[in-house]
Amino acid sequence: MVNLKINNKEITVPEGTTVLEAAKQHNILIPNFCYMEGVHQIGSCRICVVEVEGAKTLQASCVTPVREGMVVRTNSARVRKARKILYELMLSDHPKDCLGCSRNQNCEFQQLGELIQVEEFRFEGQKSKNVVDDTSPSIVRDSSKCILCRRCVTMCNEMQGVGILNAQSRGFDTEIGPGEDLPLGSAACAYCGQCTTVCPVGALKEKDSTQAVWEALLDPSKTVMVQTAPAIRAALGEEFGYEPGTLVTGKMAGALREIGFDYVFDTNFAADLTIMEEGTEFLERIKSFFYQQNLMLPEFLKKVKIHLEGKEPTLPMITSCSPGWIKYIEHYYPELLGHLSTCKSPHMMLGALCKSYFAEKKGLDPKDIFVVSIMPCTAKKFEVTRPEMVNDGVPNVDAVLTTRELARMIKDAGVDFKNLADGQFDSPLGLSSGAADIFGTTGGVMEAAIRTVYEVVTGRELPFEQMHVKPIVGLDRIKTAALTIEGAKEEWRFLEGVTVNVAVTSGLKGAAQLLDEIKQGRSTYHFIEVMGCPGGCISGGGQPRPVNNEIRQKRLEAIYREDEGKALRKSHENPDIAKIYEDFLGKPLGHKSHDLLHTQYTTRSKY
User: Fold this and answer.
1) Which domain holds residue 525?
2) What is the DSSP string of 562-581?
3) How confident is the model at residue 308, as a pLDDT?
């Protein structure tokens, strides 16, 4: 432990703590800007400078470790003057169009100016950069607003492991972006949008789709349908002043009706459908593996690696509901595409059903239906542009709004969200099980699949408390679990005694680790869940800012509360799912479901 003084207050903190962290632990506010707790500490902006007794110059508190007997002053005249000058210099290279900026009143740079009481702009001059890159279908990069904090660089390189954002050139010409002056639309970007969640200003943001949705809503020839992903209900409230983790499912449905959508559906319905298709696909791969290879059970795990040349059945099977993850594997591990489930993501499945099954029921022309998906994800905007996501010449989904965009539309429509009566989803594409809700957090897809697959194989409910597979719950980057099959039904007798190994990862850096194990023939997993964003959809690239582990945990707990509060907890028990197979789809992996609900992938280059 180290003893020091900050503003004449004697404190004790562990050795290795920075001055900024020590101050935070003792409720002493040091203004800071480029710092992100536990992730990004490089002292690039210098806003957090403090005066340390004995030091000739001011010290950046976010990178200065404490030492025994240190005396620190955080608000001396010298410190306050330096902070204001630093801020004004940053502002001199920044556009002052705050009223027209999407981050107005939710901008950390704006908030910092208020905190340190900057009232005049003394410095003007040439601007260093002014490039707007809107070539990506998901993300817009406006270099004129970039203040070179490099948070996005840390997120892209160290957290996600993609590495397409870096500082290009030097000095006054420095710009954050892909190398070789490539636009985002031409780089091997996953479009995960994590860079947009950490950008403190409007330099990185989702491509706006609200105008296209308003136009559809105001077009009398269009029937406009909307669906909402499971993670939205645990985060949307934050945009209206609710605490993180507050469930606003009913208010969300009510707000969508107030805005003017003709039908309000729940993507959760299609999450249950995904489990039926993906679970069946996994069991078929397992069955084919045994039958085609004629393996003895003890040899099973040893010989998984022989299927790495893309021959069916390829194990481990990997989930396919995260479009950022799909684009990442297409760029960086195209030789492993055979491991992906062929299932479309849930919202694409629901879009396909809106324009086929539901259109038939209502006598609507699919060409006159406009489907909007409310998603926590910026990569979904790219996903709807994929040529594979079209049936009979009609795109499955027409527009994607992030949680942040939906909040802006609700405000724009003058809806009093907090005082809104709870609404309901429309039938039959609005009923879902608790298993569908947990798709919104890391480990949820795997747990939902296990609930159904275990019961299909054994005829018994999953033997865990509240049906949770505890080893794969939580925010760790990689989580694993093993489940031994006991009491298998006759048709699955060959699985008796087999231990099924599963892995879950969220964030693309963890995905790379698991994929490398497969490439090297070291993977012992049968089934892997990958979510493109750390923590899963609860902290997707389109969710409310800020996002940190404390907020992720609260959203995660809300998702599990939603699951535990439902009478239906397993996808195969959803009566409307059974009905749609009986009336329309036939059976999982059948001809019609294959045509509407499954897809294929594209090999892309890294450069």
Assistant:
1) 288-342+441-540+564-572+586-597
2) HHHT-S--SGGG-HHHHHHI
3) 34
The answer, yes or no, to whether residue 555 has pLDDT greater than 90, is yes
List residues bridging with 73 in a β-sheet.
Answer: 51
- In this structure, how many other beta carbons lie within 10 angstroms of the beta carbon of residue 429? 25
Note whether 311 and 453 are same-domain residues.
yes
CATH (domain of 164):
3.30.70.20
Let me know: does 72 contact 51? Beta carbons within 8 Å.
yes
Q: What is the pLDDT of residues 125-175, one digit of tens each?
A: 888 888 899 999 999 999 999 999 999 999 999 999 999 999 999 988 999
- Residue 584 pLDDT grade (very low, low, confident, very high; cuts 50, 70, 90): very high
Please say if the pLDDT value at position 200 is more than 90: yes
Residues paired with residue 499 on neighbouring β-strands, in sequence order:
484
Distance CA 318, CA 326 (A): 10
Which of 147, 86, 80, 92 is CA-nearest to residue 116? 80
Residue 140, classed as helix, strand or coil, is: strand
Say whether pLDDT at 529 is over 80: yes
Mean residue pLDDT of the chain comes to: 93
Alpha-carbon distance of 143 to 254, in angstroms, equals 38
**CA quadruple 320, 325, 330, 335: dihedral sign:** negative
Q: What share of the chain is helix, strand, coil (3-state, %, to 5)?
A: 45, 15, 40
DSSP bridge partners of 266: 228
pLDDT for residue 303 is more than 50: no
- DSSP code of 117? T
User: Does pTM surpass 0.85?
Assistant: yes
Q: Which amino acid is at 87?
A: Y
Instruction: Give the bridge partners for 18, in sequence order.
Output: 65
Specify whether 63 is located in the same domain as 141: no
What stretch of H or E contains 371? strand 369-375
**Of the residues 172, 206, 240, the one at which a domain ends:** 206
Q: Known catalytic residues?
A: 278, 281, 321, 341, 380, 383, 388, 537
Res. 80 pLDDT band, cuts 50 70 90: very high
Three-class secondary structure of residue 480 per DSSP: strand
Cβ-Cβ contacts under 8 Å for 495 (sequence gap 6 or more): 286, 457, 485, 488
Nearest Cα neighbor of 347 from 322, 368, 312 is 322
Predicted pLDDT of residue 293: 58
Provide DSSP, 28-81.
-----SS-BTTTB----S-TTEEEETT-SS-EETTT-B--TT-EEESS-HHHHH
